[in-house]
Amino acid sequence: MLDNARSVVAECLGVGRDEVTFTPSGTHAVHLGLLGLLAGRARQGDLLLASAVEHSAVLHGGVWHTHRGGRFETVPVDRHGRVSPASFGEATAEHGEPAVVAVQSANPEVGALQPVADVAGSLESPVFMDACASTGRLPLPYGWAAAAASAHKWGGPAGVGVLLVRRSARWRNPFPGDERVDERACGFENVPGALAAAAALRASLEEQDGTLQLAAAHTTMTSLLAETVRSIPDTEVFLAPDDRLPHVLAFSCLYVHGEALVNALDELGFAVASGSACTASSLEPSHVLAAMGALTHGNVRVSVGRDTLAVDVRRLADVLPGVVARLRESSGVPR
Amino acid sequence: MTHLGPPRELDCRGMPCPRPIIELAKAIEEVEPGSTIAVVADDPAARVDVQAWCRMRGQRYAGLQTAADGVPVYLVTRIS
Fold this sequence. Notes:
The complex is a heterodimer of chains A (335) and B (80). Chain A has 10 helices and 10 strands.
């Protein structure tokens, strides 16, 4: 049964069956993939270079690497949150040849797709790709040596991650493990979870035409909303030009308290996320927005889903300017 | 305007975001173009948001200093 789930996932993602491993979460797949490539390259070097906008799972993996004596540096991104081969080149000139490079397929906070294949092509080092934000929505980019995905992101169950390791990649288990054959798995796999994850992924593939239509519909929705936000004075819309996730729109409103905005929208029936410091337990603003040099307060991230209707987005676009104006007025902002 | 004097200090210690930026927006109205405001803010978001505000509102970010108590001081020059 597990082999069946593995075959389905491999087919859906266009990889080999023996390149697929089910893990207890996307986060664990990230740690196994990233740290396993570093372990495989231990003789060549210990430098990890990662884009500054990687998911915290990757950044925490980098810090863990430094605690074990390794080196970890982040690579700056542009105003849209996108990293470039040139910035990896500059980081290599400054810090030396990396043992491993980490680049996400897409940024989950602002939706920018990253040029994974271009970065991989410009460097000798193996690339670890966090593909959690895009897998099941977009085909996997090329060029990676190991990658991670998370089933609940494509409509599968929570508690199932997928680790992909290329046959050609030099990967070593970075954790103690046990004496089982598949050292990439952590104990016995969650078989029902893996089956459900595979079925959900296949369902999204079988609806390929539907998926494309859905992506087009989501692009229309987020573009409409972007237009509305741009019509509100003193706002910043984070919509990467060209390649972006169709279903994500993030923006920041000057002088607005992020948590107040999230709560006001919640009262009107809209569930949105925020990267503002006031909504984080750490009281630090989103590292993604900070790396972009973007306004971090008054930040909102809208994600549209399979069940989101155009009329819902239209209603949000209708109420948003009034909500922002009211919050600004209540905080005594100069006009 | 041959002499503009020292920067006007805006003490935003203890203010959570976005309060320091709101105070900056009010204070900039009260100084002449060419004058500088020193925003003293311990809110971690100010590190990013003072510069973002300058970019969005067409004012100039003029650098970072540190107050005697270690709190960051962000310099902003009024352009228009």
